[in-house]
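Request: Give me one sample?
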Amino acid sequence: MNALGIIFTYSEFANLREISDERTMASVSFAGRYRLIYFAMSNFVNSGIFNIALITKDSYNSLIDHVGIGTEWDLDRKRGGLSILTPYGGAATGGIYRGKVDALSSHMKSIKSCMAEYVILASSSLIYSVDYREMIEHHKATGADITMAYTRNAQSCENIPLGAPLCTFDHENRMTDIYLNKDESCTNPVNLGMGIFVMRKSLLEALVADAMSYGRYDIYTGLIRKQLNALRIMGYEYTGNLMLLTSVTNYMQANMSLLDPQIREQVFENTIYTKIKDSVPVEYGPQASVKNSIIADGCIIEGTVENCIISRGVRIGRGSVIKDSIIMEYTTILENSELDYVIIDKDVIVRNSSQISGHITFPVVIKKGSII
């Protein structure tokens, strides 16, 4: 398909606390074996789009390690393929974006060099499965200048986060307004913008230049809202499964929901490619007990695990009981510990006989590399 996919690897309104302190949003672990960026990239590849640019902001070293040169996504190509656009690519920003419009402007030379007719802007703080070919066909059929995806079904998020884009449409599904949520009690259903836009690349170039000339850096209020009367901006309703990962609470709930086979089937209805590490299978000790959990390869389980998401290379010692928790890569939990509703980042050591307990709406988060 003659399109360029641009993924913003950071979020302007997500707050995952310690989970995203040392990594960009796109690098956050999900479902044990995946990173959020894998879902965004796989959506493009599954739609026949093999020209993808990742716009980074900060803490992107791990992201580069996770995606490499895009081999697993068939993006290691002479033409097109994967590009990683770092914040220091544009001298004018000094490495600091004033908004997503500024981020696009900083990398406009790279965007202009692409021969694609269309450009698709996407976010990496959402889990969804969409065929962009259908969205582009809808864009053409409606005669839209810009098409924005929205949803009324943001699972795992009871309250819409502050700063999230909300929009209204007329009877033709033409956008009439877009604004940022300022109400802490705002709940579903609303028309929640997914941060996905389709337009001609030439139009994007002109709109970014215009917005920058007036000092308007926010893509929603500074670019889209200012063009509501001048351009035909249409909505594309996404009705599939969507998970909004903007807080520790809904990050926990989204991961735990994958233990339901029906939801897991919806999330992985299309192939999600991931970096291959060729790890050994899981080793279960003679006293191990595992129920209703997702356990990645390379783990050694000698204790009890119930309703958990366990990433690669985790070790759980004898007598330890881990329930309703997320344990990230290469963490070691020694003997006779008890954990409930805990999110443990990678490379953590939990000492013998530790007891840590949280709640589904307020899980305890253990920072990367900690010794507990």
